[in-house]
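Comment thread on ticket #2218

A.B. wrote:
> Attaching the input chain for the structure job we discussed in standup.
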Amino acid sequence: MRMKISKSFGRKVLGLMCGAALAMPLAASHAAPAVPPVDEALMRDTIRTLSSDAFQGRGPGTAAEPKTLDAIIARFKAAGLQPGNKGPDGKPSWLQDVPTATITGTNRSPLTITDGTQTLTFKPSSDFVAGSYRITPHTEVKDSELVFVGYGINAPELGWNDYAGIDMHGKTAVILVNDPDYAMDSENGLFRGRRMTYYGRWTYKFEEAARQGATAALIIHDTFPAAYGWQVVESSWSGAQHFVQTANDGADQTAANGWIQKPVAEAILKAAGKDLAALTAAAQTKGFKPVPLGLKASLSFDNTIEKANSHNVVGILPGKTRPDEYVLYSAHWDHLGHCKPDATGDDICNGAVDNGTGIAALVALARMNQIAGPTARSQVFLAVTLEESGLLGSEYYAQNPVYPLARTVGGVNMDALYVGGPARDVTVTGGDKSELTAVLRRAEQAMGLAESPEEGPEKGFYYRSDHFSLAKRGVPMFDLKRGTNLVVGGVAAGKAITEDYENNRYHQPSDQYEVSWDMSGMKQDVTLFYRLGRDLAQSNAWPNWHPGDEFRAIRDKSLAEAKGK
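C.D. wrote:
> Ran it. Output below, let me know if you need it in another format.
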């Protein structure tokens, strides 16, 4: 579970047919599935084992990784799964290699801005941060023309293009954080108002700048629309950065990506004869055009590069009538390994809740589905690595899917199921984005659950967990959490549990398994996940994102391409 700022630790839990079937509505004609009992003993054993000191905090690439993989594979086998991948020899395999690169910047130069007559100089860390997605020993941006590109968004489905009419090759994009309508109180804006879309996330802005051919990209930090202070940016970008290895070593990415403090941006724009507030207002209106600033930027740094290999674990229950259509369950197995010692000297971050509980749910779901018998569609169980390093295991799977994404119907991701009793409600992170909502409503009705609004929709939590690696490539994914209105104790009890975990256990050695845990809420979570996945696996529907959603176009394209084959 990866948090740059405080958030509810329980928030992250959670293709096609030929011809007319592609256009079928999501409404299902099949009856609600019977639910086998959740095996609490199996879940407890899985959490207790994976979070024991013998597993040393499950750090990827450490001596604990083979032991962790063996433990997961053994439970997958016992649950009735089959190996879900093939090895280099073509034989069935439980594992998918995940090659990664870690880049640590050193010898950072100042950021210099000049118009040929005056030069502005800004210090690394305090004024700006920068790194590279390219695997190269040295990064240098020299005399790159600065262009203010508003929010850096290219959204054809919304008729919005902040890069209209400009060739960005050789240039550096200066970009505002969040979406154009982030300051709205409601969610009725073109970019869903207060609720952040992916276009507002910093990761998207760097990706789009690269697609436009920019040499570099600099995001203007502003605490309110960013939802975190400069200290979060500075700490996140000052150390090692982790990436999935690609065939071209990131050559298609910008040479440098970074952030600048808002006062730095104001000084740069003033030197260009511009005003940040005025340009921001202009950028919030449709039809905005990029603004060349008549300034050139330079910076450089060295990169220390380390390459490594970790593994995803893949299991499958083959479908009985449509085995080439897939429903996906996922959870990450990794945690932090050794971390800052507590007062007793304990330096093992065991990760019992984060994410021993998610792997336990994955194993329990496999067992429940095996008991219930095969579904029409195949069900894939994916234990991914390197979530804590930036969703790298799920990102690698999404880049190199074992099962085609165009034939992956949808899925459920599970991360950090919190301890405690069952709730009266469930919360959908990201809101109503896709036709998966109809599946959820059926499950809610069957379980007597209400639906509560997401807290902090402006913070973009939907884009911060493993399901997102699939979602941004078009696969509709559930991101759910048990609500805080507990059956016993109500909202006060639910919030107390959440706050205790965030303040006293999250990413600390104290995140350990305890025999006294109340597992009844986790069993409720797993029951919900079972209903959602089983519904999709028995259905003949192909859920899509709602019209206008940022992922609709890529889903439409993948379905159309698969239909034409």
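A.B. wrote:
> Thanks. Noting for the ticket: The domain at 102-305 is CATH 3.50.30.30 (Glucose Oxidase; domain 1).
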